[in-house]
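> example.struct
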């Protein structure tokens, strides 16, 4: 597995690089977002660890570019740890967020967890050859792609997995905690904001009017369900 580290602090880059290599990973390093983007566009990368405050191109802008073409897991590792920064990072498509100073053992555990989930979810062995269609939406499980009226819709990895969970269980109401456990596979942790951010991003992708959704319905006081109320295709 190839992991990209983008951080302008050389000591942190070296610490993470050594630890990852000791765990059997191949590591590519960049000191700013521009260098990281050049690596991502020329080499295969399976996971990225990004700082937020970097010269030339910061972590948020780098993540925006990554999500235009890739669903690889992205972990933010940053001193900017207030709630608004975390919500912004998750809203842009980050999969995890770890504040500095950090435990290198915890980072290694999170890297391993993200790669396991990504591999399980993307592995052809685990996929069915069938597609799922609901309303005007179709998910091709073999290609991990979403289409609306036959046109491809870009989703981040967690957004795709969350929508897939809904489409495999249409009309069923899920609490935020149930959705978090199903998609993030965290038995003892739950982040309410994470679910709301990802639901909002999915609505912005699939709904004609996100303020008046025809697919993802909010069930007040409980959670969400997939219930199509538009014209039948």
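> example.seq
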């Amino acid at each position: 597995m190839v992991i990209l580290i983008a951080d302008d602090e050389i000591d942190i880059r070296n610490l993470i690089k050594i630890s990852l290599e000791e765990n059997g990973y191949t590591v590519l390093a960049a000191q700013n977002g521009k260098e990281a983007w050049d690596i991502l566009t020329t080499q295969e990368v399976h996971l990225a660890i990004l700082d937020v405050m970097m010269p030339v191109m910061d972590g948020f802008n780098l993540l925006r570019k990554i999500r235009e073409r890739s669903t690889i897991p992205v972990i933010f590792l940053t001193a900017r740890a207030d709630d608004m920064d975390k919500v912004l990072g998750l809203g842009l498509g980050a999969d995890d967020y770890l504040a500095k100073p950090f435990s290198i053992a915890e980072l290694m555990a999170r890297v391993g967890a993200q790669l396991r989930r990504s591999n399980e979810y993307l592995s052809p062995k685990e996929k069915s050859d069938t597609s799922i269609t609901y309303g005007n939406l179709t998910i091709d499980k073999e290609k991990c792609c979403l289409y609306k009226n036959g046109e491809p819709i870009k989703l981040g990895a967690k957004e795709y997995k969350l929508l897939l969970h809904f489409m495999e269980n249409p009309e069923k109401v899920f609490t935020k905690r149930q959705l978090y456990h199903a998609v993030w596979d965290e038995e003892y942790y739950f982040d309410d904001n994470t679910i709301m951010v990802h639901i909002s991003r999915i609505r912005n992708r699939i709904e004609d009017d996100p303020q008046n959704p025809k697919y993802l319905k909010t069930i007040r006081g409980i959670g969400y369900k997939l219930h199509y109320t538009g014209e039948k295709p």
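> remarks
The longest helix spans residues 104-122.
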